[in-house]
Specification:
The protein is mostly helical. The protein has one domain (2-85, 162-377). It has helices at residues 2-16, 19-37, 67-83, 85-110, 115-157, 163-191, 194-198, 203-208, 214-248, 259-280, 283-313, 319-331, 335-347, 355-377, and strands at residues 39-43, 49-53. It has a two-stranded antiparallel ribbon with strand order 1-2. Helix 10 packs across helix 11 (283-313).
C-alpha cells in the first residue's frame, strides 16, 4: 500500500505545478462563491419568501416558478424514454408497411395492371393505413398519459415544498449544470498530462527501478488524479451548500447526491485521456481527443436521438436515423444524460436512467484494462 500511496502523492505534487489544474481550482472556487452571491431572498406582498437574482430580481419573478416545469420535464422525459420506445417502434414499423404497400400499388398503376391485380393492393394499403393510424393514436394517447402522470406527481409533491425551498433547489440544479461544464472542460486539460509526463524519459525510469509493481504505478497515477478532482469538487459543493444555507436558511442535503454522477463522468473522461496518453505519450493529442469525445461526439449522439424522436412523433420516418440513434445510444456513454441525472438528483426527482451508467462503466473498464495492459508491455 505504501508504494501506491507514494504514486498518489506524486500525482498531487505534479498537479500543484500545473497551471491548468490551478486554473481549474480557481474557476471552481470563483464560481462557487459567485453562485452564492448572485442570489438573494425577497418577500412577496403576501409574506412568502422567494429566491431571486441579487441584481435585477423581483419577488414576482422568483426561481420557484421554474420548479414545477423542471420537475415535470425531468420526470416525464425519463418515463417517456422507457414507455414510448416500444410503441414508437411499432408505429414506425406500421409506417414502413404502409409505405411498401403504397409503392406496390403505385407500381401496379404505372404498369396499368388489371383491376383484379390492383384491388388486393388497394385493400392492403387501406389495411396498412388503418393499422398505422391506430398505432399513431395509441402513441399520442400514451404521450398524454405520461405527461398527465408527471403532472400528478408534481401536484402531489409541490404542496410539501415551500416557495423558498423550490427556488433554492432550482438555483442549485442550475449551478450543478454549469459546474459540470466548468469541471469537465478543465479536468480534461488538467489530467491529460499526468501519464505522458510520467512516461517521459527519466521520470518513468526512476519509478520502474524501484520495487513497485506496474499495477500500483498505473492505478496510483489514475486514482491520484481522480481523488484530487473529487476533493476539489467536494470543496466547491461545500461552499455552495454552506453559502446558500446561511443566506437562505434552506439546507438541501440532496444537493450532494449530484456529486457521484459528476465524479463518474470525470473518471470516464480521465480513463480516456490516460489511455491516449499511454499509447501516444502526447498531452496535446490526449486533450484534443478528450474534447472531441466529450463535446462533438456527445452533441452528435444527442442530436441523433432528438431528431429521431421529433421525426417519429411528427409522422416522418427515416430508418437510418433510428438505426444510428439506437446504435449510438448503446455504443457511447451519454454525458448529457449523466448531466441531467445530476440535476434530477438535486431536485430529488424519482427517476433512474441506467443506460449511461451501464455503457459508461463498460467504457471505463475497457479503457483502464487495455491501458494497463499496454503500460505493462512498455519497455523502459
Amino acid at each position: 500500500m505504501g508504494p501506491f500511496l507514494a504514486i498518489v502523492g506524486d500525482t498531487w505534487r505534479q498537479s500543484r505545478q500545473q497551471v491548468v489544474f490551478l486554473l481549474l481550482i480557481g474557476a471552481m472556487a470563483l464560481f462557487s462563491v459567485a453562485w452564492v452571491l448572485l442570489c438573494r431572498v425577497q418577500v412577496t406582498p403576501d409574506g412568502t419568501y422567494v429566491l431571486t437574482l441579487a441584481v435585477g430580481g423581483s419577488a414576482e419573478s422568483g426561481f420557484e416558478i421554474d420548479w414545477d416545469n423542471q420537475y415535470k420535464e425531468t420526470l416525464s422525459g425519463e418515463q417517456a424514454r422507457d414507455r414510448l420506445r416500444g410503441p414508437e417502434r411499432e408505429r414506425r414499423q406500421a409506417f414502413e408497411r404502409m409505405e411498401r404497400a403504397a409503392e406496390r400499388l403505385l407500381l401496379a398503376r404505372a404498369r396499368e395492371a388489371a383491376p383484379e391485380v390492383k384491388q388486393p393492393l388497394e385493400a392492403e394499403l387501406a389495411a396498412a393505413k388503418e393499422d398505422f393510424e391506430g398505432k399513431d393514436r395509441a402513441l399520442q394517447a400514451l404521450v398524454k398519459e405520461v405527461d398527465d402522470a408527471a403532472q400528478r406527481a408534481v401536484d402531489a409533491r409541490s404542496p410539501g415544498v415551500s416557495a423558498l425551498e423550490k427556488g433554492v433547489q432550482v438555483w442549485m440544479s442550475t449551478g450543478v449544470m454549469i459546474l459540470v461544464w466548468i469541471t469537465m472542460f478543465g479536468f480534461i486539460a488538467a489530467c491529460a498530462g499526468y501519464f505522458p509526463a510520467m512516461l517521459a524519459a527519466g521520470a518513468v525510469d526512476v519509478l520502474v527501478s524501484k520495487p513497485i509493481r506496474r499495477i500500483e504505478i498505473f492505478l496510483g497515477k489514475y486514482v491520484g488524479g481522480l481523488v484530487l478532482f473529487t476533493a476539489a469538487l467536494a470543496a466547491a459543493f461545500g461552499v455552495m451548500f454552506l453559502g446558500l444555507g446561511f443566506r437562505t436558511g434552506v439546507w438541501h442535503l440532496q444537493f450532494f447526491a449530484a456529486m457521484p454522477v459528476i465524479v463518474f463522468s470525470a473518471a470516464l473522461l480521465y480513463a480516456l485521456v490516460a489511455w491516449i496518453g499511454i499509447y501516444t505519450r502526447s498531452t496535446a493529442l490526449a486533450v484534443i481527443v478528450g474534447y472531441v469525445y466529450y463535446v462533438i461526439l456527445e452533441w452528435f449522439v444527442w442530436g441523433l436521438q432528438v431528431l429521431d424522436q421529433v421525426l417519429a412523433r411528427g409522422g416522418v420516418e427515416y430508418r437510418w436515423v433510428t438505426v444510428l440513434s439506437e446504435g449510438s445510444r448503446w455504443a457511447f456513454p451519454g454525458f448529457g444524460r449523466l448531466r441531467i441525472a445530476a440535476q434530477a438528483a438535486v431536485l430529488d426527482v424519482p427517476v433512474f436512467d441506467a443506460q449511461p451508467l451501464v455503457v459508461g462503466t463498460a467504457w471505463l473498464l475497457l479503457l483502464l484494462a487495455t491501458g494497463y495492459l499496454w503500460f505493462r508491455r512498455l519497455d523502459f
